[in-house]
Q: What sequence folds into this?
């Protein structure tokens, strides 16, 4: 059951950070040897298993580079963002394996679905290994992207104040323990409309951080249609697409959005905010959700 997927203890996650010897140069102090902690990037194979006509089927969706740990959350969030699943009840369990279906030794997460998928998984699968910075890498076309949904639940709430929005990135940063050590991980946070940070997930890849966040919310049964996605970096097309598929109505990013991200946010009914730093931000779409004093 998904409810049994609790976050592993800190000891299990020790492979997230790796110390390396470096030479540090300074114009005033010269060169010194020091040890620095780097965020780990390692491959994960994503597989889906189901039964069709009494015949067991296992399909490989691809291999992604990620920061080890919370892999079950990552793959569930990935499937949610791709439209393969829409709720926790569609998943029987997630198996963490050391070999993939081809017998290769690689960290593997196999998601066992309760029923055959509604969509052709070939349109979702990546033809090549994706990098942690990769969003649409490996897609032959955009046909695998789920159509955006239009969130409506937040319309029942009073407009959020600009002051509250401006505080969200700092609240996310304060919760980014991996970034505090390495300076090399992206963060994704889920906030409620009162500004409380409900979840924070980190990864070497910003897409992976969002997938982990969505997977954790799915496991915990949180209502995403009443939440705010907070991003430590920029807002790309695929991150907006993932938010639309999950029903998230507001995105607050520290960095810039792309033009395609703004267009998709407008079409999907998502309030998109960028350059949120130093007590300021830019509001790009669906402004009525924000109260600008």
A:
């Amino acid at each position: 059951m998904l409810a049994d997927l609790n976050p592993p203890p800190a000891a299990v996650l020790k492979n997230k950070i790796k110390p390396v010897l470096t030479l540090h140069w300074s114009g005033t102090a010269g060169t010194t040897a020091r040890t620095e902690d780097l965020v780990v990037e390692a491959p994960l194979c994503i597989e889906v298993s189901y039964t069709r006509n009494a015949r067991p089927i296992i399909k490989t969706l691809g291999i992604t580079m990620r920061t080890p740990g919370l892999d079950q959350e990552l793959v569930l969030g990935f499937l949610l963002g791709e439209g393969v699943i829409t709720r926790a009840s569609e998943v029987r369990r997630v198996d963490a394996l050391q070999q993939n279906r081809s017998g290769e030794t690689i960290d593997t997460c196999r998601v066992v679905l309760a029923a055959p998928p509604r969509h052709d998984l070939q349109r979702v699968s990546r033809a090549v290994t994706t990098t942690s910075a990769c969003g649409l890498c490996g897609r032959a076309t955009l046909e695998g992207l789920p159509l955006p949904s239009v969130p409506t639940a937040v319309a029942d709430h009073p407009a959020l104040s600009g002051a509250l929005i401006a505080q969200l990135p700092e609240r996310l940063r304060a919760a980014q323990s991996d970034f505090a050590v390495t300076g090399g991980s992206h963060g994704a946070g889920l906030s409620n409309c009162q500004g409380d940070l409900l979840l924070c997930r980190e990864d070497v890849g910003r897409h992976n951080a969002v997938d982990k966040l969505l997977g954790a919310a799915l496991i915990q049964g949180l209502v995403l249609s009443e939440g705010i996605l907070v991003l430590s970096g920029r807002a790309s097309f695929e991150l907006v697409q993932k938010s639309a598929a999950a029903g998230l109505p507001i995105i607050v990013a520290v960095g810039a959005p792309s033009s395609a991200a703004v267009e998709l946010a407008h079409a999907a009914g998502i309030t998109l905010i960028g350059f949120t730093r130093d007590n300021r931000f830019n509001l790009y779409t669906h402004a009525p959700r924000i109260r600008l004093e």
About this structure: Helices lie at 71-81, 162-175, 177-182, 206-220, 237-246, 259-268. The first helix runs from residue 71 to 81. The chain has three domains: 2-39, 42-123, 153-291. The CA atoms of residues 7 and 70 lie 7 Å apart.
